[in-house]
Amino acid sequence: MKLLDDISNKSDHWSNGPADPPNEEMVGLLVPKILLLIGIPDKEISKSYPTTGRRDPVDYAARLISTENSLEFSLQPKNPDLIIEIKRPSKTFIDKGKEYFKAVEQLNRYFAGSKCKSVRFGLIFNGLHLQLFRKHDQLSYPITSILSTRRENIKKTISILKKRIEDFQDKRGSIISVWNNKGGVGKTSIAQSLSILLSRSKAFNRFDKNKILVIDYDHNQGDLTNNCGLPIGDGITKELLEKDIKDELTEEFDFDKYLSVFTNKNRKPKANFEFEIKVLRADSKLSKLGEKYSQYFSSKNKFPLRELCLKLSKRFDYIIIDSPPNYEQSIFSKESIMASDCILPIGLYANKNSLINFAKFAKNDIKDAQIARFDGGPHILGLWINKWRRSWTERYTRECVQDIIESTNKEDRLELERIFYKKFIRRLDLRKITERAEIARCIMDSNGLPGVVRFNSARVALQSLLKEFVE
To answer: Do 32 and 154 lie in a common domain?
Structure first.
């Protein structure tokens, strides 16, 4: 109880604007107390941990689990699980302004450090508010909302931190929705191709390759299911959702009965590019259910697909959802968004509407979705512009993005800049998937293999996107 009082007293005092403004060192004194409350003792905490060689130190690092034979982390810090970046209270987080984005960007830079490959969590803390992030391979995203440390909130904040760390201790997979509010931008091709490429990659400190599940939630079209050479399901996803409501999806449940395998292993002639992913096919019975979907499944789960994916994520490293467009009109589009940890937005080169439609969603709809979830998600990753090519329309596309950002109010502008731009050699640039006809190519003969399997040029075009997830 005393630790809670110490933290809340300081937070309450600093929030009133004391005569002597606190600095990072004063805020840092609260870090060991917060970590102790979530179950991390002093011996497992190190102050000023170098993230790259002896340089670029993060303020604190900690180990979540120690063994009998391990040295105290505070004496010999190595392979931390958690890093903490400290800011003074004047660097406010709650309005998600410039100081907040700077703190998150700095945390992500530390995540990428050569001595932080083992890190699974990151925390930003300014004495008044904090937020917890997850690091999964090269991917990072918030797993809490921005939480207060004031007296009336501190108990709940500590409880949320403990629960979220516990939820991710088993290294569950990340749930990614490939999406845009506009159709025809290449979402299905990217979802299928990314899934295949991820299945051939290995995570840090692991010898086995990533286990991938791709979910076709566009039940009205089922293009991904068709592209995998599989028949549309007749009630398989609906049955899984029903069993989840009845609490039948236990640890021993045989999910493989409901999942199809898409692979070119053991085919003749022998493939040089072998892969294997699992597929949860589009469901004709859910398609017929349509807008009655929510009413049908709302008896227990507010977000039924989210609950199903959380159970499946214990068996897979990544779950990729091929999501339909039309967030306002399609219940399956909303479900895909609400199910995801992260949204991977895909725009279309020289297509103004695909960029404007996503910007509208990012400004108007995502906040309501995050409030409804209250766990930091769904988080929007950077937008990738598909089918990029060098032509006179390149300038048009760049100007279109700039117009969208400049016409946005100040409160949303920083978030849109984060989504549309990446930093590249000290200047802003767009994320691009170079146009390759081979990416969307799927020869539906006896092999039925997508372009990313058959053509090296398709794999090369997607390497930059893949590096956002794995090394």
So the answer is: yes
Mean pLDDT over 168-182 rounds to 90
Three-state SS for the chain is CHHHHHHHHHHHHHHCCCCCCCCHHHHHCCHHHHHHHCCCCHHHEEEEEEEECCEEEEEEEECCCCCCCCCCCCCCCCCCCEEEEECCCCCCCCCCCHHHHHHHHHHHHHHCCCCCCCCCEEEEECCCEEEEEEEECCEEEECCCCEECCCCCHHHHHHHHHHHHHHHCCCCCEEEEEECCCCCCCHHHHHHHHHHHHHCCECCCCCCECCEEEEECCCCCCHHHHHCCCCCECCHHHHHHHHHHCCCCCCCCCHHHCCEEEECCCCCCCCCCCCEEEEECCEHHHHHHHHHHHHHHCCCCCCHHHHHHHHHCCCCCEEEEECCCCCCCCHHHHHHHHHCCEEEEEEECCCHHHHHHHHHHHHHCHHHHHHHHCCCCCEECCCEEEEECCCCHHHHHHHHHHHHHHCCCHHHHHHHHHHHEEEECCEEEEEEEECCCCCCCEECCCCCEEHHHHCHHHHHHCHHHHCCCCC
Q: What is the CATH number of the domain that holds 450?
A: 3.40.50.300
Terminal CA-CA length for the chain: 44
pLDDT tens, 208-238?
889 999 999 999 999 999 999 999 999 999 9
| Confidence band for 95, pLDDT divided at 50, 70 and 90 | confident
Give the mean model confidence (pLDDT) for residues 202-207. 66
Same structural domain for residues 359 and 438? yes
What share of the chain has pLDDT > 70, as a percent? 94
CATH code of residue 15: 3.90.1570
162 and 181 co-located in one domain: no
Name the token pair of 28.
């840092």
Q: Which domain covers residue 41, as residue numbers?
A: 2-168
pLDDT at 205 over 90: no
Q: What are the pLDDT digits (tens) for 307-339?
A: 999 999 999 999 999 999 999 889 999 999 999
Which of 153, 168, 183 is a domain's end point? Answer: 168
For the chain, the domain total comes to 2
Domain boundary among 168, 190, 225: 168
Same structural domain, 353 and 330: yes
Residue 471 belongs to some domain of the structure: no
Report pLDDT digits (tens) over 440-470. 877 655 567 888 988 899 999 999 999 999 9
pLDDT at 443: 62
